[in-house]
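QA checklist item 7 of 12: single-chain prediction sanity check.
[x] sequence parsed
[x] length recorded as 138
[x] structure emitted
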Amino acid sequence: MRQKKNRQKGKLLKILLIGLSLAVISTIGSVLYFYLRSLEFLQNTPIVAHTALVATPTLEEYKKALDEKEIVYEKVEYLPDESGIKIQIQDGPEVFVSSSKDLSYQISSLQSILTHSTIDNKKPKRIDFRFVKPIVNF
Protein backbone atom coordinates (compact mmCIF):
# COMPACT_ATOMS: atom_id res chain seq x y z
CA MET A 1 0.00 0.00 0.00
CA ARG A 2 2.81 2.30 0.90
CA GLN A 3 4.58 1.63 -2.42
CA LYS A 4 1.38 2.49 -4.29
CA LYS A 5 1.20 5.89 -2.57
CA ASN A 6 4.86 6.56 -3.31
CA ARG A 7 4.28 5.73 -6.98
CA GLN A 8 1.29 8.06 -7.09
CA LYS A 9 3.33 10.83 -5.44
CA GLY A 10 6.14 10.23 -7.93
CA LYS A 11 3.72 10.46 -10.89
CA LEU A 12 2.10 13.56 -9.46
CA LEU A 13 5.52 15.14 -8.90
CA LYS A 14 6.56 14.36 -12.50
CA ILE A 15 3.35 15.89 -13.87
CA LEU A 16 3.82 18.96 -11.68
CA LEU A 17 7.46 19.38 -12.82
CA ILE A 18 6.51 18.97 -16.49
CA GLY A 19 3.69 21.53 -16.12
CA LEU A 20 5.97 23.95 -14.32
CA SER A 21 8.70 23.50 -16.95
CA LEU A 22 6.21 24.20 -19.76
CA ALA A 23 5.01 27.32 -17.98
CA VAL A 24 8.59 28.60 -17.56
CA ILE A 25 9.47 27.84 -21.20
CA SER A 26 6.28 29.53 -22.38
CA THR A 27 7.02 32.64 -20.30
CA ILE A 28 10.61 32.86 -21.57
CA GLY A 29 9.38 32.39 -25.14
CA SER A 30 6.84 35.19 -24.77
CA VAL A 31 9.39 37.57 -23.29
CA LEU A 32 11.87 36.81 -26.11
CA TYR A 33 9.16 37.22 -28.75
CA PHE A 34 8.15 40.69 -27.55
CA TYR A 35 11.79 41.72 -27.06
CA LEU A 36 12.70 40.71 -30.61
CA ARG A 37 9.61 42.47 -31.99
CA SER A 38 10.69 45.66 -30.28
CA LEU A 39 14.14 45.38 -31.88
CA GLU A 40 12.58 44.93 -35.31
CA PHE A 41 10.52 48.07 -34.72
CA LEU A 42 13.65 50.03 -33.81
CA GLN A 43 15.41 48.87 -36.99
CA ASN A 44 12.66 50.40 -39.14
CA THR A 45 12.89 53.84 -37.59
CA PRO A 46 14.76 56.48 -39.54
CA ILE A 47 18.24 57.35 -38.36
CA VAL A 48 18.63 61.11 -38.19
CA ALA A 49 21.37 61.61 -35.63
CA HIS A 50 24.11 61.97 -38.24
CA THR A 51 22.13 64.52 -40.23
CA ALA A 52 21.72 67.03 -37.42
CA LEU A 53 25.23 68.46 -37.80
CA VAL A 54 25.24 68.73 -41.61
CA ALA A 55 25.03 72.29 -42.95
CA THR A 56 22.38 72.85 -45.62
CA PRO A 57 24.10 73.03 -49.03
CA THR A 58 23.16 75.69 -51.58
CA LEU A 59 21.99 74.99 -55.12
CA GLU A 60 25.43 76.04 -56.35
CA GLU A 61 27.06 73.42 -54.14
CA TYR A 62 24.78 70.76 -55.60
CA LYS A 63 25.64 71.90 -59.13
CA LYS A 64 29.35 71.83 -58.33
CA ALA A 65 29.10 68.32 -56.85
CA LEU A 66 27.20 67.09 -59.92
CA ASP A 67 29.82 68.63 -62.21
CA GLU A 68 32.64 66.99 -60.24
CA LYS A 69 31.01 63.58 -60.68
CA GLU A 70 30.38 64.39 -64.37
CA ILE A 71 26.62 64.01 -64.00
CA VAL A 72 24.93 66.11 -66.67
CA TYR A 73 21.78 67.83 -65.41
CA GLU A 74 19.16 70.11 -66.92
CA LYS A 75 17.84 71.79 -63.80
CA VAL A 76 18.47 71.99 -60.04
CA GLU A 77 15.79 73.62 -57.89
CA TYR A 78 14.33 73.68 -54.39
CA LEU A 79 11.13 71.70 -53.86
CA PRO A 80 8.08 73.86 -53.08
CA ASP A 81 7.56 72.26 -49.67
CA GLU A 82 11.26 72.76 -48.81
CA SER A 83 11.70 69.03 -48.10
CA GLY A 84 14.68 68.86 -50.42
CA ILE A 85 16.01 69.59 -53.88
CA LYS A 86 14.88 68.35 -57.28
CA ILE A 87 17.50 67.58 -59.92
CA GLN A 88 16.49 66.81 -63.48
CA ILE A 89 19.18 64.66 -65.07
CA GLN A 90 19.66 65.23 -68.81
CA ASP A 91 17.92 62.38 -70.68
CA GLY A 92 17.46 60.71 -67.32
CA PRO A 93 15.46 60.53 -64.13
CA GLU A 94 14.03 63.10 -61.77
CA VAL A 95 16.15 63.00 -58.62
CA PHE A 96 15.02 64.18 -55.19
CA VAL A 97 17.71 64.76 -52.58
CA SER A 98 17.44 65.77 -48.97
CA SER A 99 18.95 69.10 -48.03
CA SER A 100 19.52 67.77 -44.50
CA LYS A 101 21.65 64.76 -45.52
CA ASP A 102 25.29 64.61 -46.57
CA LEU A 103 25.64 66.08 -50.06
CA SER A 104 28.65 64.05 -51.22
CA TYR A 105 27.10 60.77 -50.07
CA GLN A 106 23.88 61.43 -51.98
CA ILE A 107 25.66 62.50 -55.18
CA SER A 108 28.04 59.50 -55.01
CA SER A 109 25.06 57.20 -54.52
CA LEU A 110 23.32 58.85 -57.47
CA GLN A 111 26.37 58.29 -59.67
CA SER A 112 26.48 54.63 -58.61
CA ILE A 113 22.77 54.09 -59.34
CA LEU A 114 23.04 55.77 -62.74
CA THR A 115 26.14 53.73 -63.65
CA HIS A 116 24.58 50.42 -62.60
CA SER A 117 21.31 51.15 -64.36
CA THR A 118 23.23 51.94 -67.57
CA ILE A 119 25.10 48.64 -67.33
CA ASP A 120 21.83 46.74 -66.75
CA ASN A 121 20.09 48.65 -69.60
CA LYS A 122 17.45 49.92 -67.20
CA LYS A 123 16.59 53.61 -67.09
CA PRO A 124 15.22 54.86 -63.79
CA LYS A 125 12.41 57.41 -64.04
CA ARG A 126 12.70 58.69 -60.48
CA ILE A 127 15.27 58.42 -57.67
CA ASP A 128 14.45 59.69 -54.17
CA PHE A 129 17.14 60.12 -51.49
CA ARG A 130 14.90 61.82 -48.91
CA PHE A 131 14.32 58.54 -47.05
CA VAL A 132 16.63 56.26 -45.06
CA LYS A 133 17.24 54.12 -48.17
CA PRO A 134 17.06 55.51 -51.71
CA ILE A 135 13.91 54.68 -53.66
CA VAL A 136 14.40 53.98 -57.37
CA ASN A 137 11.40 53.77 -59.71
CA PHE A 138 11.80 52.32 -63.20
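[x] summary fact logged: The beta strands are 73-78, 85-89, 94-97, 126-128, 135-137.
[ ] second reviewer sign-off
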